[in-house]
Design brief:
The chain has about 180 residues and is an alpha+beta fold. It has two domains: about 35 residues, no CATH class; about 140 residues, no CATH class. A hairpin with a 5-residue loop joins strand 5 and strand 6. It is elongated and about 65 Å long. The termini are far apart.
Length: about 180
């Protein structure tokens, strides 16, 4: 059995212990003690890295390419819905690994006259503050926009809970990302 020393009482204890049996001090690291704050930090830190810090930079280039895309609706798609779903699944798996649990459960690409990405999220959604929920929708829109490849110019997304109830929608419009949190 490997041992370690308790930081509070200096007693030798099992290295796998999360609480000291002598002084009852919590031996977990900060990330393990604060899982909700960990998720919030990751939500605000990971997306800029995934999007290459391009959310607010190069807006002139984005707006001109956006108007070109909108003016040519017959443009050939560079990715199929299946490819987009696979790319999104990979991004979401990376995000879930960083968070430490499966916040994003699954993604579907659905055709409602235009292609939508529908994300099923953890029921932890209901425990988040409204501004965090709004940020999550924006991050999700950016994930979709990053991989959609011409499938949907607006990068429209819907977030649903595990029961299939729609909890939020978002899209990338001319004025930026529009979010609607549903009650």
């Amino acid at each position: 059995m490997t041992t370690k020393q308790c930081k509070q009482c200096r007693t030798e204890i099992d290295s796998k212990a999360s609480r000291c049996p002598h002084c009852q001090s919590d031996l977990r690291n900060w990330w393990q003690k604060h899982p909700v704050l960990t998720i919030i930090l990751i939500i605000f830190v990971i997306p800029p890295f995934l999007s290459g810090f391009s959310m607010n930079s190069n807006t002139d280039n984005k707006s001109s390419s956006r108007s070109e895309t909108i003016s040519s609706p017959t443009e050939k798609l560079s990715k199929t819905p299946v490819q987009v779903k696979e790319d999104l699944s990979g991004l979401l798996e990376q995000a879930n690994q960083k968070v430490g649990f499966q916040f994003y459960r699954k993604v579907n690409i659905e055709n409602y006259g235009a292609y939508w990405a529908t994300f099923t999220v953890s029921d932890d959604w209901y425990n988040l503050e409204p501004y965090i929920q709004e940020r999550l929708v924006k991050v999700t829109v950016n994930y979709y926009k990053q991989v959609e490849g011409g499938l949907n110019r607006l990068a429209e997304v819907s977030l649903k809970d595990s029961f299939g109830k729609e909890v939020a929608t978002g899209y990338y419009g001319a004025g930026g990302i529009e979010v609607k949190i549903l009650k």
